[in-house]
Amino acid sequence: MNIAFKSTHLSLESTERRTILVAGGAGFLGSHLCDQLLHDGHKVICVDNFSTGRMDNLWHLLRFDTFSFIRHDIISSIDVPVDEIYNLACPASPPHYQADPIHTMKTCVFGSLNLLELAARHQARIFQASTSEVYGDPLVHPQPESYWGNVNSFGPRSCYDEGKRSAETLFRDFHVKYGVDIRIARIFNTYGPRMRPDDGRVVSNFIVQALKGQDITVYGDGSQSRSFCYVDDLIKGFLRLMGDQTAIHTPVNLGNPVEFTVRELAEQIVSMTGSSSKIVYRQLPIDDPRQRRPDITVAKRELGWEPSVALADGLKSTVSYFERQLVRPSGELVEVA
Ligand code: NAD
Ligand code: UDP
User: Fold this and answer.
1) How much of the chain, in percent, has pLDDT values that exceed 90?
2) N or C end of the chain: smaller count of CB under 10 Å?
3) Which ligand is nearest to the CA of 285?
4) Tens of pLDDT along 234-270?
5) What distance in angstroms lies between residue 330's CA and the mean position of ligand 1's atoms?
């Protein structure tokens, strides 16, 4: 067992040490969550089908004897004794969740159902990684939790948007019918180290393009907006929401309320990387939301949480991560799709 881990582990009372299942733990957010839970002294079981997740996100955790992983697709049921469950399993990038939309819908619906049944069986608290996509292309701005959204049920994004909306409904109904202790985070665009270079989301695309001197592909005219949260801030929000002192069983927005246009993001990344890349304009994907910014009043009031990492600082560490990912020791650039 790792020494650094031992010391934090010993600081936990045995009654506080929990066995926690993280579905989707090999992905971007899930692997950061596993890191934090292990360092807090818990036992972590990562369950992942490795569709978008990678062993590269987990190698450093194999030194913990309190860490294990199971290769498993959550559309099939699973039974392991657990005290807590985090459901992060689902591709999050539009090109990835649209690649097999029926599997995405099954992951959201059957996967949530299987994990909720596991939670009910073991009286485990369960967290759902929901999304700002439940608001669709919002007509209310910024978006509070009370807004029901503007979602197309019949488009390329629907498998994800409607899948995540259905999952929220299942969580609510398991809480009402079986008393399952649920927590639901509506996560807004989050970025940081461990995103895949071929992830396809805007921050990773622009950084990889800038570092490789390729054209920066702004979709549409770049006037659509997003609010970008750094991963460390978000994980703190997850832990607050899952805390014993919180008993909030309705969805909570977690995200950074500072809003940028996609064009501003492109310009900032070109400038901070000193790249020679040109900004080019490509077709806007169907149903791409025009604007997005979280109203985080509930998170501030109920969790005492708000993000603290500014975009410029978060981008700096994300750029360093991608520099390490893309450059071989020889200095040659690694090819990504
Ligand atoms: P990611 O694609 O990096 O991680 C998803 C993980 O889930 C991967 O490891 C993947 O292999 C695994 N997975 C997918 N389908 C599975 C299945 N059927 N069975 C088991 N494992 C499966 O994405 P991420 O950005 O880390 O997102 C994690 C969660 O947070 C997702 O549920 C996503 O919808 C949600 N979310 C993320 C953001 C964001 O900005 N990062 C925003 C809103 C919601
Ligand atoms: N986007 C872009 N260029 C890219 C990737 C994405 O202009 O190479 C845009 C996309 O059309 C959307 C925004 O950036 O308006 C955020 O896209 P992302 O896929 O990161 O997340 P979304 O919020 O759409 O799920």
Assistant:
1) 90
2) C
3) 2
4) 999 999 999 988 889 999 999 999 999 999 999 999 9
5) 33
